[in-house]
């Protein structure tokens, strides 16, 4: 029973890692704390829902549509809003981005309620009910596939940042944006790319959430908090580390649900978050 | 080549540079001397485009640089080795050098550029896959100079390249600068080690409290009593 | 000086509102004004710590919730409501002082997300411990007098306005504003930053606790975790920023505008107001950090200049 819980925790942990990767990238590179990240995940979930409903795509196949759409949406959001935020000095930037993300979160939430009602939805798949039995453990196929896809996406992102010319430019900008300018990198473009990638990851995470779990317009805050917790746990700078941080959070939640009862599964992550935050007030999100 | 006229610059309420004018010709080595806080780094930062001046002009080959964003200044052939090197510590030596050739013009010659840097600093060739933060201060300075060279600059600007580096390595850095200059690259050098700087340079400017206090051929300044007293004398403690 | 004048104007308006129940106003009008008054108190309480001391507290609902929780329990068991509310406020402040010192190790946005998490911890815990809906006893419902709630709300709104006015003119208030502008510079010039931030938090959470008690007194039934919901914080933040953060009149104007628009729009589209206020809020953060108050000042400046004639 406990083992079963832990396995399910591990499976959702992969999505926590994916959700956090986008936030980590955007914060690490731009020093912009986008608390609407959870709402971007929510919107991605609905995009997937409609891709499946309208075009009859396979839920995982819908990623091929949702990710490019999210990237594009990220470009628009950056150009319309965040390109103004990044002009401020770092402290103002973090604070303003927090406030703006907060306004965005409210607006997206209201919009989603209007467009899709406040009901919970999830994508129904033909293979939705299948499980793989390993001894006593029942592993839902869809969630296992989600974990796998999350891992592949994180791996892809890692390669992109390690090998691609602009990937290196993004890393350089994260480390020292002024030095990046001095080497001839157009830092604003690096910001644009990082923000688009972050939004693309949020879209992908939303798709997986709507397949294996469920979405509603109000899941945003919860997912923003999950992503923040993972970022604090894993630090900035390594996408693979962020993924592992997500797995750790998923397992920790499952363990605490087993120890203190289901309703407390949310609390453990938040407590870890607050404790780490207060223990490392300045070096937070440090490398 | 580089023409600065009546430049005023500063941060917030603080005015750092007032009415600075200077010029650097093609292939020249020019040193900029002055006590700490006199505005030397501010001047380099303004030329590189990281700080927008309040008044005055910075013209490079006839074009006004103050209107350009910093990455385009690099594209035009001015590269700065900033104070404290500002390398990307979590990346390898080679990644740092490649990033130096980010500008479109330099990228086409990236492979040749790498060869040139490794020929100049043979120490780095064997460490190309090493993370920069694991290098010594002197080796890091070589990477910093190499990174700037990768941009194929016409004018190389350096801010305190000898700071915090073992004397033996300082000599090899200065030799490298002489080599770089022989290949036709102009050099604009801010340096606390006045003796070394004036020995290398053709001309020099002295910046005091944000104004040009003296300028002339390096050999003349080396003999100038005021410069000797302020920057070379036994009582001079700067930096 | 203008702050005093605004305080006087607002208090006069609140005084005039005292006559509203005498005019046999319909209950829905009283309910509507009640909502505005509660919002003014909540926004003003948030304004103290965020607007004056510059600490964006995103866990404000926790203190509102604690005040509601204790006041409700005591009141239902027979404690006079004012005493119950004061006890609720004391609990909120005690909790604030408990978490204050560690929380203030966080600066800027980190304080904001840290307090957001604290608020969520409290909400989840209360939701788990007290999942049952809280409903007033039948006898209390039978004797329910809306007017009592109304007058209490009026008094509380007046208290919040007086508190902010006194604070704004005091040495402590000036110190808080110095911290808001530049904490390190303020400390360097001898301002005890931590002590003043704790003072601001204590005052802010005491008012929030009182507002929570008023909520508990007003509603016939609700889930105990409801007043802990993050939307209370978000409402206070929106009202304060839209009106003008760090001013006396800003949160009052913001609360009026917010409630009026919310109630008006709710008829056609639930949560539509959040879309509008979310967008308005973003515009304010980017373009007009002083909110409506700043906009009014600018407009007046233009009119004033145009209206001035050479002698």
Estimate what percentage of residues of chain B fall within beta strands.
25-35%
Q: What is the N-to-C succession of helices and strands of chain A?
A: HHHHEEHHHHHHH
Question: Could you tell me the number of beta strands of chain A?
Answer: 2
Query: Structural class, judged by helices and strands of chain A?
Result: mainly alpha
| Oligomer category | heterotrimer
Descriptive report:
The complex is a heterotrimer of chains A (287), B (239) and C (311). Chain A is an all-alpha fold and 287 residues long. Chain A has one domain. Helices cover 75% and strands 3% of the residues of chain A. Chain A starts with a helix and ends in an 8-residue tail after the last helix. Chain B has 239 residues and is an alpha/beta fold. Chain B has a domain at 2-86 and 152-232: P-loop containing nucleotide triphosphate hydrolases (Rossmann fold), CATH 3.40.50. Chain B has 11 helices and 10 strands. Chain C has 311 residues and is mainly α. Chain C has one domain (2-230). Chain C has helices at residues 2-17, 27-52, 60-76, 81-103, 108-129, 138-142, 146-169, 171-181, 183-188, 193-218, 230-243, 249-266, 272-287, 291-307; strands at residues 134-135, 221-222. Chain C has a two-stranded antiparallel ribbon with strand order 1-2. In chain C, helix 3 crosses helix 10 (193-218), helix 7 packs across helix 8 (171-181) and helix 8 (171-181) packs across helix 10. Residues 304-311 of chain C have low confidence and may be disordered. Chains in contact: A-B, A-C. At the A-C interface, helix 3, helix 4, helix 9 and helix 11 of A face helix 5, helix 11 and helix 13 of C.
Write the layout of secondary structure elements.
The complex is a heterotrimer of chains A (287), B (239) and C (311).
Chain A: H1 2-30, H2 37-55, H3 63-85, H4 90-116, E1 131-134, E2 137-140, H5 141-163, H6 165-175, H7 177-182, H8 187-212, H9 220-234, H10 239-260, H11 265-279
Antiparallel strand pairs in A: 1-2
Helix pairs in contact in A: 1-5, 1-8, 1-9, 1-10, 2-3, 2-4, 2-8, 2-9, 3-8, 5-6, 5-8, 6-8, 9-10, 9-11, 10-11
Chain B: E1 2-11, E2 14-24, E3 29-33, H1 40-48, E4 55-60, E5 63-64, H2 70-75, E6 78-81, H3 93-100, H4 104-107, H5 110-120, H6 122-125, H7 137-150, E7 155-159, H8 167-182, E8 186-190, H9 194-200, E9 203-208, E10 211-217, H10 218-223, H11 225-232
Parallel strand pairs in B: 3-8, 3-9, 6-7, 7-8
Antiparallel strand pairs in B: 1-2, 1-4, 4-5, 9-10
Helix pairs in contact in B: 3-7, 5-7
Chain C: H1 2-17, H2 27-52, H3 60-76, H4 81-103, H5 108-129, E1 134-135, H6 138-142, H7 146-169, H8 171-181, H9 183-188, H10 193-218, E2 221-222, H11 230-243, H12 249-266, H13 272-287, H14 291-307
Antiparallel strand pairs in C: 1-2
Helix pairs in contact in C: 1-7, 2-7, 2-10, 2-11, 2-12, 3-4, 3-5, 3-10, 3-11, 4-10, 7-8, 7-10, 8-10, 11-12, 12-13
């Amino acid at each position: 029973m406990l083992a079963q819980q832990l396995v399910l925790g591990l499976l959702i942990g992969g999505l926590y890692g994916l959700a956090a990767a986008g936030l980590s990238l955007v914060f690490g590179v731009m020093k912009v704390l986008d608390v609407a990240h959870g709402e971007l995940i929510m919107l991605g979930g609905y995009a997937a829902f409609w891709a499946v409903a309208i075009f009859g795509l396979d839920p995982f196949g819908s990623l091929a549509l949702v990710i490019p759409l999210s990237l594009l949406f990220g470009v628009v959001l950056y150009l319309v809003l965040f390109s103004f935020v990044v002009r401020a000095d770092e402290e103002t930037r973090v604070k303003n981005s927090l406030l703006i993300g907060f306004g965005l979160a409210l607006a997206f939430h209201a919009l989603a309620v209007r467009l899709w009602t406040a009901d919970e939805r999830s994508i129904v798949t033909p293979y939705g009910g299948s499980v793989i039995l390993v001894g006593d453990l029942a592993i839902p196929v869809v969630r296992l596939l989600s974990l796998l896809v999350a891992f592949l996406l994180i791996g892809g992102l890692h390669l992109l940042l390690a090998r691609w010319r602009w990937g290196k430019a993004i890393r350089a900008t994260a480390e020292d944006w002024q030095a990046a300018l001095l080497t001839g990198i157009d830092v604003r473009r690096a910001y644009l790319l990082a923000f688009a990638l972050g939004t693309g990851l949020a879209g992908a995470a939303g798709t997986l959430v709507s397949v294996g779990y469920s979405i509603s317009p109000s899941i945003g805050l919860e997912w923003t908090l999950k992503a923040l917790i993972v970022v604090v746990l894993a630090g900035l700078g390594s996408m693979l580390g962020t993924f592992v941080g997500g797995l750790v959070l998923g397992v920790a939640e499952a363990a605490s649900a087993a120890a203190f009862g289901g309703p407390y599964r949310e609390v453990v992550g938040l407590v870890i978050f607050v404790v780490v935050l207060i223990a490392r007030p300045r070096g937070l999100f440090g490398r | 080549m580089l023409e600065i006229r009546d430049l005023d610059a500063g941060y917030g309420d603080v005015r750092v540079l007032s009415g600075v004018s200077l010029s650097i010709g093609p292939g020249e080595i020019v040193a900029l001397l002055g006590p700490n806080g006199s505005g030397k780094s501010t001047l380099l930062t303004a030329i590189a485009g990281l700080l927008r001046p309040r008044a005055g002009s910075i013209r490079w080959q006839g074009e006004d640089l103050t209107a350009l964003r910093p990455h385009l200044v690099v594209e035009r052939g001015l590269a700065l080795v900033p104070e404290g090197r500002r390398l990307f510590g979590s990346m390898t030596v080679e990644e740092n050098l490649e990033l130096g050739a980010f500008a479109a013009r330099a990228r086409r010659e990236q492979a040749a550029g790498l060869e040139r840097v490794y020929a100049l600093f043979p120490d780095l060739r064997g460490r190309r896959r090493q993370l920069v933060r694991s290098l010594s201060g002197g080796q890091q300075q070589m990477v910093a100079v190499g990174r700037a060279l990768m941009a194929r600059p016409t004018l190389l600007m350096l801010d305190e390249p000898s700071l915090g580096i073992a004397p033996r390595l300082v000599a090899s850095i200065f030799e490298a600068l002489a080599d770089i200059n022989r290949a036709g690259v102009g050099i604009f050098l801010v340096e606390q080690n006045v003796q070394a700087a004036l020995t290398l340079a053709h001309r020099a400017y002295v910046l005091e409290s944000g104004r040009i206090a003296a300028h002339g051929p390096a050999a003349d300044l080396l003999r100038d009593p005021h410069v000797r007293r302020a920057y070379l004398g036994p009582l001079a403690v700067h930096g | 000086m203008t702050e005093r004048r605004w305080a006087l104007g607002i208090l006069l308006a609140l005084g005039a509102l005292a006559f509203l129940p005498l005019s046999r106003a319909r209950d829905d009008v009283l309910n509507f004004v009640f909502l505005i008054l509660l919002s003014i108190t909540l926004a003003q309480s948030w304004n103290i710590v965020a607007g004056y001391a510059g600490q964006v507290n995103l866990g404000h609902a926790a203190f509102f919730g604690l005040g509601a929780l204790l006041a409700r329990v005591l009141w239902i068991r027979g404690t006079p409501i004012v005493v119950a509310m004061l006890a609720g406020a004391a609990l909120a402040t005690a909790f604030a002082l408990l978490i204050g010192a560690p929380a203030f190790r966080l600066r800027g946005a980190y304080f904001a997300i840290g307090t957001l998490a604290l608020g969520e911890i409290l909400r989840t815990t209360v939701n788990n411990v007290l999942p049952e809906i809280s409903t007033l006893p039948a006898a209390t419902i039978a004797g329910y007098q809306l007017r009592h709630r109304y007058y209490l709300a009026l008094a509380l709104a007046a208290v919040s306005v007086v508190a902010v006015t006194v604070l704004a003119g005091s040495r402590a208030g000036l110190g808080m504003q110095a911290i808001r502008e530049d904490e390190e510079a303020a400390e360097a010039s001898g301002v005890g930053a931590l002590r003043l931030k704790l003072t601001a938090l204590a005052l802010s959470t005491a008012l929030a606790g009182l507002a929570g008690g008023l909520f508990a007194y007003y509603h016939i039934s609700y889930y105990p975790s409801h007043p802990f919901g993050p939307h209370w914080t978000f409402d206070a933040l929106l009202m304060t920023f839209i009106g003008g953060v760090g001013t006396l009149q800003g949160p009052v104007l913001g609360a009026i505008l917010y409630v009026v628009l919310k109630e008006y729009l709710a008829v056609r589209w639930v949560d539509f107001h959040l879309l509008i206020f979310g967008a308005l809020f973003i515009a304010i953060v980017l373009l007009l950090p002083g909110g409506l108050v700043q906009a009014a000042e600018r407009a007046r400046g233009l009119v004033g200049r145009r209206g001035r004639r050479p002698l």
